[in-house]
Amino acid sequence: MSKAIDTKPADEMAKLNSSEGQKGETPGTAFEEATAAAKKIWANNENEEYRKDNSHFRGVGRWTDDERWKSIGKNSLTALNRHIRMVTNDPFYWTQERNMLEWGPGGGSNAYAFRKLVQYYYGVDISQDNLNETERVASEDGTQGFVPVLLNSSIDDVIKSVREPVDIFLSTAVFQHFPSKAYGVEVLKCVHQVLKPGGIGMVQIRFDNGNPKYKPIAELEEYHEKHITATSYALDEFFGILQEIGFYEIFITGLNRDINYVTYLFRRKNNA
């Protein structure tokens, strides 16, 4: 695990947060339009088997192997535990009441892994079916605490639904499916608002290293065709975005050059 060293210049961050970063990408209306485009794939897809497989539904497609399905959440828990020990030096971290938020729980493997460790587990998704499935698997042994948050169109849907600041933020294999880089920036800004000062975050993304297969789309019209690999960020670019929003102690781990996956672990600044 190692820290990144370079960050995107301020003018590059400004582009990402304005319409220059990607045509049609500005906060507000554009976020709603992008969410609507994503819903066509992840909430209202005519091919339900395809949607469930790519949303990691237990027992569907690649996830008929239950151990493989469980491994998604187990891997997230292992990575977060390692980071928690390093940055908090608190061996009793989970003995205190903790609240958690996941963006894009899909079929619920992460929620399943953390279900007995947290008081409340907020799951933000654009698909009601995904939220229903996550609630089902997270409560199958009687465990309560999952709080479904349906993102209809506005990012305010999320902010208004979180009862109190959360201790942990998690998102795995989701940012790559966002309709644009700017969309991901808006999500991270939302996370900054609901995460406690000193709270811990973990995000898995696709990184852009010039490989055409993982090049981010330039227009929303491309999303339907390229939704699996719609968004990626250069390693230093995403590091800079996190810093600009108000996160620190940023670490990069889990870099996989075969499929361009990488994971960022970070904390919310106390005074930001």
What would your notes on this structure say?
This protein has a single domain (10-268), classed as Vaccinia Virus protein VP39 (Rossmann fold, 3-Layer(aba) Sandwich). A hairpin with a 4-residue loop joins strand 6 (247-256) and strand 7. It has a seven-stranded mixed sheet, with helices on both faces. It has ten helices and seven strands. It has helices at 10-16, 29-42, 48-54, 66-88, 109-114, 128-138, 156-161, 181-194, 223-226, 235-245; strands at 99-103, 120-125, 146-150, 166-171, 195-206, 247-256, 261-268. It has 272 residues and is α/β, with parallel strands linked by helices. The protein is globular.
Name some characteristics of this structure.
single chain, seven-stranded mixed sheet, 7 strands, 38% helix, disordered N terminus
Summarize the model shown.
The protein has 272 residues and is α/β, with parallel strands linked by helices. The protein has helices at 10-16, 29-42, 48-54, 66-88, 109-114, 128-138, 156-161, 181-194, 223-226, 235-245; strands at residues 99-103, 120-125, 146-150, 166-171, 195-206, 247-256, 261-268.
